[in-house]
Structure formats: structure tokens, C-alpha cells
Amino acid sequence: MAFDFAERSGGASGTDFHTLIVGTGFAGLGMAIKLKEEGQDDFVILERAADVGGTWRDNNYPGCACDVQSHLYSFSFEQNPDWSRMFAKQGEIWAYLRACSEKHGLAPHLRFGADVTSARWNDELQKWSVSTRDGRTFTGRVLISGMGGLSNPVIPDLKGKSKFKGAQFHSAQWRHDVDLSGKRVAVIGTGASAIQFVPQIQKLAGRVDLYQRTPPWIVPKPDRAISAIERRLFKRFPLLQNLYRKGIYWMLESRILGFTVDPRLMKLFEVVARSHIKRQVKDPVLRAKLTPDYTIGCKRILISDDYYPALTQANVEVIADGVREIRANSVVADDGTEREVDVIIWGTGFQTADPVPRGVFFGRNGIDILDAWKNGAEAYKGTSVAGFPNLFFIVGPNTGLGHSSMVFMIESQVGYISDALKTMRQRSVATVEVRPEALREYNDRLQSRIGKAVWNTGGCQSWYLDRNGRNVTLWPGATWQFRRQTRRFDIERYVSEPVKVHGAA
Ligand code: NAP
Asked: Oxidoreductase: is it a keyword of this entry (predicted)?
């Protein structure tokens, strides 16, 4: 019996759908657009916020922009000739995602304020039952997580944090109502987010104390405005834009050799980064503080032309130290020095130790996915987990990138999942569940390969590695290799079941 999508549609107010998608970032929207394209309408997209956009909705701190060229960091099927800059700012990327959602008619499928608190597999019904914080429950044959790996901000649990009397907020929850003009501001963290907002707040604040535990490697940002003529050409000749996109793709892709094959090749990037800092920071003491001692690429390589110049300004102090304690009106560095501040901004990144929170995904026999992952998160092709039928992750374990556009990886997974659903329809199966041996074999190979990469061998600590030092985050190869692996849904690597309960399909 083939699934009849139209027959079981949950409709605008219904709660039972063939497919439940979680999240409206590039992953969730990309998946939904693909389903629409294939004429599949029986799905709902659960979004905890009040609008689409994922990370590009939430991260609206001053200076937020993409650090991958926008012509590549966008859907291949929705190339935008109107990007105003090489590296678009957050507002433009968010607007792009909203426009994609509108153009593809996703509005009737969106359920806002639907913060998923639990997703349980019901073996009798062969369905997922998903509950949201506001008390709603949705059921679906298939559950697709597009929750992303960087969606839950982390503020470290430092002594005295709650005693601070001034305003404090995380970069991903920027308090635009807090006027920083003339204020004494402590910024904690020097990652990809901080290097974008520090130059902006430096212009306003009376003083900025920048707490840097580990300096990042930074290379110049080849940003520029895209001229009206170029935009007209891209609009008129989409093929030209496609070629441009491909050019960027291969330029970024060439870097993978240094990341994964021979970290010694990273020396080339190090030369560029060292000359960047030399050009922009004349003070040798400050330069020494800002120069990393690990191999470039071990942590994400950052790009910026305005970060170092901001740090050379008289109102900025770089404190090359961790934070010991927060007091009512001050921050105490690890060396015991106390500095009074009015505002604390946490640029301390996201919850990445586990790709999903505990107590959310429960598979066969009620097993929490974090228990299935007690030795580290892993998924077959970053997508499927044994014991969790019909659950597909987009941006799952080992699909992150240090060198190119995540949208490319997302589209690969979207294609794989859509082929899975097609295969299920064609073969009239109700469930697909990856075979444990397929999962094992895939991850053993992946881990042996990643062990040689610069992220593991470069002498740094990063959020790419889990608490056991295992890299469960990044894809250790070229993105086209991942695309090749995910081109076809390999049902032979899965166990499948027919429908158990008639009428419940
Ligand atoms: P992040 O890269 O994880 O950086 C967090 C920073 O906080 C690090 O400097 C870290 O120091 C510091 N830190 C964490 N805990 C601390 C503590 N207890 N005491 C002192 N310092 C502490 O976070 P992020 O900057 O938000 O970026 C996260 C990821 O988001 C990036 O890697 C990137 O993938 C993505 N992102 C992308 C863009 C883009 O343009 N596409 C922009 C922003 C973010 P250590 O280095 O010592 O751990």
C-alpha cells in the first residue's frame, strides 16, 4: 500500500502529518521546499520563534554577517542576483530566507511558537509524537530535525554571574535596548561572533575589556560591494552567476587539502594570517597577545579587516586571560585583577557538547538519543541513527565544515532524505532504520580519517571536539565527496518495515 499523502493531511489546524520538520533555518526551509517541489504537501514545520530564519533571525548583533561568500552561501535553486556585498550582512540573509519561504508557499505549513520539548517514537503506530512547550502535540510518520548545531547559546557557569547588577547578555540574544554609549563593557570570548561585534561596540563604548582565553587566527576579509552593473548582469545571465558561484566553490574547496590531508599545508594560511596581524597591529606586546600558538585551522579560521584595528584603539584593553569571577559591578580575571564594568556581553558560543539536548529524542524502547550516543554522537551519513526509525537529521553529527558553505551540505542531506521518502513510497514501507553495522562501519572509517585532520592534531581545544576529545562535528573531506555519498538513498543499509496497523498509515 502506497502512502496517500493527500488523504492524511493534517490541514491548517490538524496535528497528524506525514512529515514533521523542526526548524526554519536553511535546513528546515530547504527540506520543506524540496517536499513541495516533489508535490508532497502533507508536512508541517515546527518553529519555536515567531518568524522563519533560524540562526540568521536570532543572531542580529551589530556587525553580524556571513563569513562565506553569499553567492555560495545560498540555495543553489534560489540564487540571488541581488546580494549587495560579497559577504552579506545578517539582515539581508534573513530577508533572503523569508523571501524563499514566501516564494515557495510555505506559510500554511509553518507553526510558530512550537518549541519542541520531546519527540517519541511510537512503535505500534510507527509514528513520531512530538510535543511542544505550549502544550501542542503533533504526530508524523517521519521526523526531520533541522534544529542546527548552533542554536542554543551558552553562558559559562562562572562564580557570581547572577550577582552582576548591570545588563548582561549573549551575542545571540543581543539586547538592542541596552545603550552602550560611553559605557564600560566587558566582552568575554573572541570567537567568530565577538570579532564581528567588537569593532562595532568599540566605536560607542567608553571602554571595552576584551577577555581572550585563546586568540583566533584571522585572515583578511575579501569583502566588497557588488556593483549595480554586476547585479544586472547576474540577473540577466543566470548562467554567469552560476559560474561565479562555482568559482567560489572550487576556490574554497581547494583548502580542504590543508585541513584534512596534510596540516603542514596550513603553513600557507599562517603566512597570510601573520602578515595580516603584522600590518594591522604595530604594538609588539599587543601583537604577541593576539598571535595564536596552535596550527591555523585547528579552530575556525576567522576573517576580518576591522577587528585588529579596533583592538588598537585607546578605549580597548585585551586581557589575555580567562574569567575567574563576576561581582556586582566588576569582572575578575584569572590572574585576580578586578575591572569595574557596566555591561557584560557573552560571546561564548553555543551548546555543542551534545548535538541535541537530553530528554528530547526518544527512539525504540524509549531510549534517549543521548544514551545511544554515550560514547559520542554519530549518525550514518550525518543523517540516521540506529534505534531511531524515520528520524533524519540535517546538520547532524560530522556534517559541519571549516572550509566552505554549510548550505551545500544541507542541500546534500535534503536530497538524501527526499530520496529516502521517495523510496519508502515506491516500496510501500512504513519505516526505515539504519542498520547498526552500517552506522558502525561508516563512523569507524570517518573517525580514522578525521584523526589526521588539523582540528584534531593542531594543538587546540575547540567546540569541534566533544568531552572525550572526539571530533563529532566536522566532515573530514571535500564537500563533493559528501554530495556523492548522499546522492542516493541506500535502502540496503537500512532495515525497513511494512505498515503494521491498517488505516494508520
Ligand atoms: P565560539 O567560536 O565557540 O567562541 C566562543 C568564545 O568564547 C571563544 O573565544 C572561547 O574561548 C570563549 N569562551 C568560552 N567559554 C569561556 C569561558 N568560560 N571563559 C572565557 N572565555 C570563554 O562562539 P561564536 O563566536 O559564537 O561562534 C560559534 C560558531 O558560530 C562559529 O565557530 C561559526 O561556526 C558560527 N558563526 C559563524 C559566523 C559566520 O559569519 N558565518 C559568525 C558567527 C558565528 P576558547 O577559544 O578559549 O574556548
From this structure: yes
Taking the centre of ligand 1 as the mean of its atom positions, its distance from the CA of residue 368, in whole angstroms, is: 28
Contact between 289 and 215 (Cβ < 8 Å): yes
Q: Please enumerate in sequence order all residues whose Cβ is within 8 A of that of 371, keeping only pairs 6 or more positions apart, or say none.
A: none
What residues make up the domain containing 399? 16-52+106-152+351-503
How many domains are there within the chain?
A: 2
Q: Confirm whether 239 is domain-assigned.
A: no
216 Cα: distance to centroid of ligand 1 (angstroms): 9
Is residue 61 a part of any domain in this protein?
no
For residues 364 and 326, state if they share a domain: no
Quick check: is 426 in a domain?
A: yes
Same domain, 332 and 454: no
Last residue of a domain, one of 346, 363, 385: 346
**In the structure, which protein residues have their CB atom closer than 6 angstroms to any atom of ligand 1?**
65-67, 150, 156, 171, 188-194, 211, 213-214, 300, 322-323, 347-350, 463
> Per residue in 81-102, pLDDT tens?
999 999 999 999 999 999 999 9
Give how far Cα 21 sits from Cα of 109, 151, 270, 284, 414, Å.
Answer: 10, 16, 41, 52, 12
CA of 297 to the centre of ligand 1 (A): 14
Whole-number Å distance between alpha carbons of 277 and 478: 29
In this structure, the answer to whether residues 174 and 271 fall within a common structural domain is yes
Q: Residue whose CA is closest, atom 5 of ligand 1?
A: 348
Query: Which of 80, 72, 113 minimizes the C-alpha distance to 96?
Result: 80
Give the closest residue to 407 by CA, choosing from 115, 47, 88: 88
User: What angle do the packed helices 26-37 and 406-427 form, to 10 degrees?
Assistant: 40
Let me know if residue 384 belongs to a domain. Answer: yes
The residue to which cell 568559482 is assigned: 247
Which atom number of ligand 1 is nearest to the Cα of residue 73?
41
Identify the domain boundary among 301, 317, 346: 346
Model pTM score: 0.95
Tens digit of pLDDT for each residue in 198-229? 999 999 999 999 999 999 999 999 999 999 99
